[in-house]
Amino acid sequence: MSKNKKNIGDNRYTITSMNPKSPISEQYRTIRTTIEFKMIDQGIKSFLVTSSEASAGKSTTIANLAITFAQQGKKVLLIDADLRKPTVNLTFKVQNRVGLTNVLMNQSSITDAQQRTRVSENLTIISSGPIPPNPSELLGSIAMKRLIESVTEFFDVILIDTPPLSLVTDAQVLSNYVGGVVIVAQANQTKKDGLLRTKKLLNQVQANILGVVLHGAEMSDSNSYYYYGVE
Questions:
Q1: Mean pLDDT along residues 106-116
Q2: pTM value?
């Protein structure tokens, strides 16, 4: 395990840690429970999170879902597989010199790439590592498949952040190595055509779509936001 100093997450994005009693945090727990029921029913431990387009809130969503699973007492691993625009290291304030790309290129062990934060003792992070010239090839490699198989033995839940499917096919490639896929849609931004195209791309590789999370929907009785459960 990395010996880097433990840091708490960025409270702009990790509301489930900074304000666990807020309505938004409760919505995240509702989403977690819905996903968890599907995971138990299907006997899976891992899922990736993607979106149709950039700025849909997928990285914020996956960070908070990871925290809520950890708060439940589960051993959680969050992997940043967005090898084009990584954010997990920024959200959780961990180093990004050594991460997923180093493991996949056989430059580091899985253990040495793991990091912990003060957000929860149950949450482990593998940041993206240096941005490679060939992200899709690395994510679709046998090394990536073996990494997921290996960590499944030690963690209860594995969450993987991936790029939007409208930009690249990384999530499509990686979906064959995980138990399921969660799609994040941004309220008043994500277009129906884009969402349908994302679903079509995932169906082409027979990905197991667990559902869609609507991010940033304005509540009728306040100025805050909440998150719909997986449907």
A1: 96
A2: 0.89
